[in-house]
Amino acid sequence: MSKVCIVTGASRGLGRGIALVLAREEGCTVYATARNEDALKTLAEEAADGAKGGSVKPCVLDQSDDSAVHAFVEQVNANENHVDLLVNSAYAGLLAIKPHFGKPFWERPLSVFDASIEIGLRSAHVMSALVAPIMVKAKSGLIVQISSFGGVSYLFDVGYGVGKAGLDRLTADMAAELKSHDVHAVTLYPGGAVTEIAAFPDGETPVFTGRAVASLLNKASKEELERFSGKVVQTAELAVDYQFTDVTGEIPNGPFSGVEAAKQCREAMSKPLMQYDLDAELPDPLETNNPDAAGFFPGA
Asked: How many domains, in total, are found in the chain?
């Protein structure tokens, strides 16, 4: 029986790639949400070319409308009676951040902070809280948060880091409450990406991110999921473990993506949080918060 997945933020970027891989390569039934109906319809048409019999069901949805999200989840449950996977990929922060690269947080509009929290952290909690009862009832399911290295080190903007760190903690705490119900929650860190918005040198495509999610859904054993649950895993690490590549046939190898970048991130995660490590040096914000950094996001 086809696995049922929900992917938010699926009209473009990583969410789109995740939905496409799950439908076209894994044969899943994917409820893809976003506000852009035309983009979702194009995604559904592209996914239909797959040989595995999967499909994308376009679902126009505003993640900031709690009542609409509630109605959407009720409809999915009525149609399918189960949900195997929820991927929270919707994020509005980058579009808000781009015009303000090079400014400190006190010179940015408060709306820039809100954008990372509302459609990112808060929307992930709302969708997870509504889908979790379905998974708990079935004693099966996986929730994946699409987060970032910004959760453990300064990256781009104060709101960006707070939102990503919040996602990481959301996963950890949800996993603790879901553990006895055989439902797992995992945070996924993609590398620097190449999407409609972002253009990191030699970065990973959304398909690579999608294959990482697919490996968690269909290749990871129950014991491995139990080990991952509540924790951060990286796309490049999963590529090594589960033997998948990007559309190039290789694992990305850019300065912000790939195995070496993942090793550096894992090293950072192995150290105490800097607020508890009195010897830690604060990162240099100019490395990622300067006017030129906007060039990483030409489509924003």
From this structure: 1
